[in-house]
């Protein structure tokens, strides 16, 4: 079991979850430092179609990230709302390569 990041993260990316993850298993297309710089530059439009994902192979299911998310995008795998179930696979697929 792992935690899963779902649709509300899209374009938000404040990365509070990354700060508290003890195993550094939350990542996106860009490094968090770069995301922060884009936000500082006021260029959020560049992040509109991006979100972060949780690597289910590394997540230790501690739950620390879930209460940190300001848009309630993080759920335990068994608790993902039906309309966002595809995100279980999307999170896993992001780390397949
Ligand atoms: S549940 Fe814990 S280990 Fe998994 S992503 Fe969240 S903070 Fe990281
Ligand atoms: S999951 Fe929540 S806390 Fe983490 S980057 Fe996305 S919106 Fe921010």
Automatic annotation (TrEMBL):
InterPro entries: 4Fe4S_Fe-S-bd, 4Fe4S_Fe_S_CS, 7Fe_ferredoxin, RnfB_subfamily. Keywords: 4Fe-4S, Electron transport, Iron, Iron-sulfur, Metal-binding, Transport. It holds the Pfam family Fer4. PROSITE patterns: 4FE4S_FER_1, 4FE4S_FER_2. One of its GO terms (molecular function) is metal ion binding. SUPFAM superfamilies: 4Fe-4S ferredoxins (SSF54862). Ferredoxins are iron-sulfur proteins that transfer electrons in a wide variety of metabolic reactions. This is Ferredoxin.
């Amino acid at each position: 079991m792992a935690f899963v990041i779902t649709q509300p993260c899209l374009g938000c990316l404040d990365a509070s979850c990354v700060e508290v993850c003890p195993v550094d298993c939350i990542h996106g297309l860009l490094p968090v430092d770069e995301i922060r710089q884009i936000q500082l530059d006021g260029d959020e439009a560049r992040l509109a179609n991006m979100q972060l994902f949780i690597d289910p192979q590394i997540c230790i299911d501690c739950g620390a990230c879930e209460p940190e998310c300001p848009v309630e995008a993080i759920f335990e795998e068994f608790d993902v709302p039906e309309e966002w179930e595809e995100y279980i696979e999307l999170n896993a697929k992001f780390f397949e390569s």
